[in-house]
Amino acid sequence: MKVTIELFGASRDFSNQDSIEIDIENNSTIKDVRDKMLGYLHSNFKGNENFIKIVNSSVFCSKDNIISDNYKITNHEKIAIIPPIGGG
Amino acid sequence: MLHTRVVDIKDKKLSIIDAEKFISSSDFGASIFFSGTVRNQNNDKSVTGITYDSHDALVIKSFKEIYNEADQKLKIKDKAVFIEHAKGFLNLGEISIIIAVACKHRDEAYVLSRYIIEEIKKRSPIWKKEHYQNNETDWLKGNPIQYEKN
Lengths: 88, 150
Fold this sequence. Notes:
Low-confidence stretches of chain A: none
Order of helices and strands of chain A: EEHHEEE
Distance between the termini of chain A: 38 Å
Shape of chain A: globular
CATH class of chain A: Alpha Beta
Radius of gyration of chain B: 16 Å
CATH class of chain B: Alpha Beta
Largest sheet of chain A: 5 strands, mixed
Helix content of chain A: 25-40%
Oligomer: heterodimer
């Protein structure tokens, strides 16, 4: 199944688009999505260490809720990656 | 009484006048206006502007939570609060955030204003990309949102 990951902050450098779409197994969790994203970075950015740090230090959200690594993704669900923050 | 908004800088600039109109009331004897602006230096680099990015839904949710917490944690019941944050590219000196608070007394107003900006820094999903004189850019590192992963 597919999941769309909206990109924010430093993760916008992962793509020229506002989001990336990745294929995941049925019943995948956010932990699986995080692993898939690391694979995507290895394939597309030769394992850029800064990008890997961003993924490992980010949380994810669905609509306006932060979700845990055990959260199960549904097909075609849109989630967002929330890298470390610093507004104001 | 609360006003919150993430303002796309393409639509309008943040305005202290808007904030003053919202919090103005004879119920309150103390008002504090805080604005954050884009400065020209950071980490020994010459900054020419900042692009702000925002997850709008989460940002507005965090503003409301911070406001509601003020009731419980700070025991400040009677208040007017105006919070706007900009997103998009801002030039030097332009306003990125306005927090205006009005309370009955000055002690409450100072405490509330400081509480809101510090909590926004910790909890609201907003990011800064600095632009430098050599045309390079850099996303500022920031702090991870504290959340139990499992």
